[in-house]
Amino acid sequence: MAFGAERGLPPDLRGWDPEDFKAYIAHRQTITEPGSVTNHVQLIKALHQFRAALTCGGLPHDPWPGISTNAVANQPIVPELRTPVIPPETWFPLIRNCWTYIDVFAPDILRAAAHWDELRSRPLTGPDAARRFDTWLADTAKTIPTRRARPSETPGPKINISLLARIIGVRPDFFQNSTPHGRRRRKALERLVVNRRTHPGLLPDLTEVSRPDGSRRPWHDSLGPTELQVEQVMLRNACFVFTAALSMMRECELRTITKDALVEHYGSPAVKSTKQKLDPGLPIKHWWITPPVARAIELAGRLSQHDKLVFASVGDRWAGDSFASIAAIDDFINHINRWRHASGLEEIPDGKVTPHMFRRTMAMLTGDFPGSEIAVGMQLKHVTTRALANRVTGSYMDNDPSWARHLDTAIADRRFDRLTELFNADTAGQHIGYGPGADRIREAFAAVRDQAERLRATGQAQRGDIRVEHNLLRRTRISIRFGKLNHCTMNDNDPTGAKCIEDAISPDGHRGPLLDRCQPGRCPNSVIAPEHIPIWIAERSALGRILADGKIAANHRRRIESELQEVDRVLKRSNQ
Predict the structure, then answer these.
(1) What digits encode the pLDDT tens for the residues 304-329?
(2) What pLDDT score does 496 carry?
(3) pLDDT exceeds cutoff 70 at 94
(4) What does each C-alpha distance from 387 to 51, 70, 251, 369, 510 come to in angstroms?
(5) Cα–Cα separations (whole angstroms), residue 262 to 80, 271, 286, 298, 363
(6) Are 493 and 485 in contact (CB under 8 A)?
(7) Do 384 and 371 form a contact (C-beta atoms < 8 A)?
(8) Of 315, 341, 323, whose CA–CA distance to 241 is shortest?
(9) How buried is 73 (Cβ within 10 angstroms: 0-12 exposed, 13-18 middle, 19+ buried)?
(10) Can you list the alpha helix ranges (DSSP code H) found in 210-306?
(11) In Å, how far from its chain's centre is CA 366?
């Protein structure tokens, strides 16, 4: 009413025009938060909605018909996502280090655990201990297990007396310094150390890695029983981080994965877990994963001491199912950075990393570049394609500036790799595709080879060096977009003939094809490659089976017949 009095509006709200209410809300938006503005919009809409129940009659019109209260107040129903992404300088070394633990270190950790279990099961007998020790000492193939020096000791590897006693099958007091026999035995062991008849911890043949100092040594300098407990926990943590990063599952869903959760879902590997967020029914959901993620889950299940859960406590000292997810991530990163001089792993920059940030980061990657393969220093088969099928909140896919330059480079490199594969196949006389677009690509490839030959003929390039063609190929402007059903050779600067943009209104600032309007069988820019043909043949077979069923409605039959004509048009291009 104060707003109306200042502007000379009628004192009765029923006399206000819709524009007056809109001006009032615009005024409120300049002086208060959107959440408070929502209350004012709600009241104005209610005065219209309940006009029949109000003695004053209420408002005759809703100033914003068909528009929600939140939309009027510019207050999104889902608030802006505040979860940050993990920066690429942290993401890549973290994921690579996890995979090194899973793929390289895990076999040694599992072997060491099995060996330690076997040693602990041996009886420690007394009467023939001296004879057994002398027999062990005389065997030149036997080596002494060593441990790290304690803070109070001089640097360098020390004899692990308790472990050696287990290996020989004697009690630890067998080597006591307080007895003459014990001192004599210790001196015999020290002579073996001088002769370098030693190995670090439980296993004499740990996998060797390249260390930061340039040497090549075992990845662990003393994998004894104590260190084994720590490494089992770190391996569990690596599996947890790897699965969280590349599955886009929520933390609560990761924690409920059971040991029987690995399944096949619609022909692809998947993990089943309980979906909890915003769902009181707690249904079982399937999350598509890649074989490396399946391997991480299977490995974590072998380590778990819990009857059912995959991600739980490991080892004898930590029974049950309790471990803190954030602490597990922090401990893993700190462990990597502390011992990387021995393990050869990459340093991980300091910074906050949480389970929620993994989901946010991978959603951003798959949202920006669906179907692409992201270079993480190793080939994780179609991880982004699978991850894209796992549903996430839309705002998770918002861009992040820290990734922009890296992803642009990664996608360009991957595109050139595929273009090179196509060029090599064409050079080898293989058929690379069908349609006018394929003809233009072959002509471009032929021009590259002709130019390379001219360079060789004039002595500007060496004969037999395929890198000449590849360097020319990189500098040649060949317009091609690789797809699952066809490739597109549309030139953004000269899109004449592109069926997808005919009679279409392109969004402001958009360049390139409109993928949802693609017509593979009609467009001169379309390339049907050999790898696409089985998909189209399978589609033709599926549509034929539907048409063979006489129970479908007439309108559905016409739609299926139209789709079948498009499929036949594509296959006709490839002479199928």
Answers:
(1) 988 889 999 886 655 445 678 899 99
(2) 77
(3) yes
(4) 50, 32, 16, 11, 26
(5) 34, 5, 10, 8, 22
(6) no
(7) yes
(8) 323
(9) buried
(10) 225-247, 251-255, 291-303
(11) 9
